[in-house]
UniProtKB/TrEMBL annotation:
It is found in: Cell membrane. Its main location: membrane. NCBIfam families: integ_memb_HG (TIGR03954). This is DUF3817 domain-containing protein. It is a multi-pass membrane protein. Residues 4-90 form the DUF3817 domain. Keywords: Cell membrane, Membrane, Transmembrane, Transmembrane helix. The chain crosses the membrane at residues 12-32, 38-60, 67-86. InterPro entries: DUF3817_TM. GO terms for cellular component: plasma membrane. The keyword Cell membrane applies. The keyword Membrane applies.
Length: 101
């Protein structure tokens, strides 16, 4: 269960960083000529994006996600609000993986 919570945390942070980048940092850069917020937020978002992709790969293995579900998770990461929608639609009924003794 900790794995699912960790994935959700990474997903929320990645989605939030994308929204901040698009909704705050980019307008500051192009409307007020302030490029520093894009530099900072862009680097943070890039790191979270890589972490999210690695987490999706781990979830595909640990929770036996299908290729289609993994692909949807990746596509969700490049759509504004996508990670939140993916969580609501695809992760609500997620059960922890069963382990053989």
């Amino acid at each position: 269960m900790k794995t699912l919570k960790a994935f959700r945390l990474i997903s929320y942070l990645e989605g939030l960083s994308f929204l901040v980048l698009l909704g705050i940092a980019m307008p500051l850069k192009y409307l007020l000529d302030m490029p520093l917020p894009v530099t900072i937020t862009g680097a943070l978002h890039g790191g979270l994006f890589v972490l999210y992709i690695l987490a999706v790969g781990y979830m595909m293995i640990a929770f036996k996600w299908s290729f289609a579900k993994g692909l949807l998770a990746v596509i969700a990461s490049v759509v504004p609000f996508g990670p939140f929608i993916f969580d609501k639609k695809m992760l609500n009924d997620e059960a922890p993986p069963t382990r053989a003794l």
